[in-house]
Amino acid sequence: MSTPTWLKSLAWAALIWNLLGVIAFSMQVMMTPEMISKLPTDQQAAYSDIPLWSTIAFAIAVFGGLLGCILLLMKKALAIPIFAVSLSAILLQQYYNFVVINSIELLGLSAVFMPILVIIITIGLLYISIKGKQQSWLD
After folding, report:
1. Is 64 within 8 Å of 86 (Cβ atoms)?
2. Dmax (CA) of the chain
3. pLDDT, tens digit (0-9, with 9 covering 90-100), for 124-134
4. Could you tell me if 87 and 55 are in contact, meaning their C-beta atoms sit under 8 angstroms apart?
5. Which residue has the higher pLDDT, 99 or 93?
6. Using CA atoms, how far apart are residues 84 and 41, in angstroms rounded to an integer?
7. Is 79 exposed, middle or buried (0-12, 13-18, 19+ CB in 10 A)?
8. What does the alpha-carbon distance between residue 81 and residue 19 come to, in Å, rounded to a whole number?
9. Cα-based torsion angle of the residue sequence 39, 58, 122, 68 in order, rounded to the nearest 10 degrees
């Protein structure tokens, strides 16, 4: 079966989305204590003392998503396990955000929207990659 025309556009849009994730990660790891002290008090708590395992999960999530999109653009089935690892890392990072620091209590319900969107998009990319392998769009 031939590759659908929408796949390339979707992969490019997802690549841009994941580049935004890389930027968000970079901004978080470059935050100095002085920068954190200028945030509202509730946000200071969310950005202070983030454990290394959560930061590593964030890195794997965003760089995995970026690599998965590049592989999707190259029509490579290797995108499947890369997106699966990225999704696992997202879930681990969100465990920290929602269970360990209870970001909903700290930041309110607005703290839920972006993580849920990230999870939905990643599941969608994983699904499309699996479907692409099944339909021979990816090799």
Report:
1. yes
2. 56
3. 999 999 999 99
4. no
5. 93
6. 35
7. buried
8. 19
9. 130
Cβ contacts of 88 within 8 Å, gap of 6 or more: none
How far apart CA 11 and CA 138 sit, in angstroms, is 13
Looking at residue 73, its pLDDT comes to 96
pTM: 0.88
Mean per-residue pLDDT, 45-58 = 87
Q: Which residues contact 6 (CB under 8 A, 6 or more apart)?
A: none
pLDDT of the residue at 33: 86
Q: What is the rounded CA–CA span in Å between residue 8 and residue 39? A: 39
Per-residue tokens: 130: 């699996």
Residue with tokens 């703290």, as numbered in its chain: 111
CB within 8 Å of 14: residues ≥ 6 apart: 65, 69, 72, 121, 125
Percent of the chain with pLDDT over 90: 68
Which DSSP letter does residue 108 get?
-
Residue-wise pLDDT for 16-36, tens only, equals: 999 999 999 999 899 888 888
Q: Tell me how long the chain is.
A: 139
